[in-house]
């Protein structure tokens, strides 16, 4: 029987149906970035300005398409740095309040965290990394060349995950958004993910790479891979990247 859960979600998040948010109740805001739960040394990234692209914005928009098959060539750290800056780069930090970034976000809440499944990036071991946006560095989480097999399985066997140079995995840190907007904040999480992924598509054109966004995945499996509880924190979107 059809449950009409989508319709119920929309109606439940109409403004007249919302309870006061934590911000309205005077509660303190959550952290602007997740705490570092791994003890490894963070890796400095080259400045994003090290990429000198001749691709205009008009050309990037015209060329943008989903690319599922990639050349075997790796990305380099300069290219990865540029793509991370384009999708979550921090331009300014307002301490304890907000970050201003290269993508829009409702109320500048920026409730997404970026993880990287690395297969072929020069200078990096295959495995899982986390982007530390405020420092523009990456933190090794798990060195495992077989990690892509587990993520491919969680994405219903979509082979571009295994064949990509790197797969971007975005987590939603729910309270960072709902603190201000209550239950309506769930809408904004999904909107924000769209902003981020479109920037990745366009920025990839500048480094002769292609992107394929992935929304078809087993939520429970992929959340388990990143130790997300599926409620307070969950995987919202993925995108594979590789050289054309």
Keywords:
single chain, 244 residues, alpha+beta, NADH Oxidase, 7-stranded antiparallel β-sheet
3D architecture notes:
The chain is α+β, with helices and mostly antiparallel strands. It has a single domain, classed as NADH Oxidase (3-Layer(aba) Sandwich), CATH 3.40.109.10. It contains 8 helices and 9 strands. The protein has helices spanning 5-12, 57-63, 77-88, 147-154, 160-163, 174-181, 185-205, 219-225, and strands at residues 43-44, 90-94, 98-101, 112-118, 127-132, 137-143, 166-173, 209-214, 233-243. The strands form 2 sheets. The protein has a 7-stranded antiparallel sheet with strand order 1-6-5-4-7-9-8, with helices on both faces. Helix 6 packs across helix 7 (185-205). The relative contact order is 0.20.
Short description:
It is built from eight helices and nine strands.
Gyration radius, in Å: 18 Å
What is the N-to-C succession of helices and strands?
HEHHEEEEEHHEHHEHE
Global outline: globular
CATH topology category name:
NADH Oxidase
How many domains comprise the coordinates?
A: 1
Strand order of the largest sheet: 1-6-5-4-7-9-8
Proper CATH architecture: 3-Layer(aba) Sandwich
Name the helicity range: 25-40%
Ranges where pLDDT stays below 50 over 5 or more residues in a row are none
In terms of structural class, how would the helical and strand content be classed? alpha+beta
Mean pLDDT: 96
CATH-assigned homologous superfamily: NADH Oxidase
Distance between the termini: 44 Å
Counting DSSP H or I runs of 4 or more residues, the number of helices is 8
Write down how many β-strands occur, each being a DSSP E stretch of 2 or more residues: 9
So what's the CATH class? Answer: Alpha Beta
Could you tell me the strand content as a percent range? 15-25%
Biggest beta sheet summary: 7 strands, antiparallel
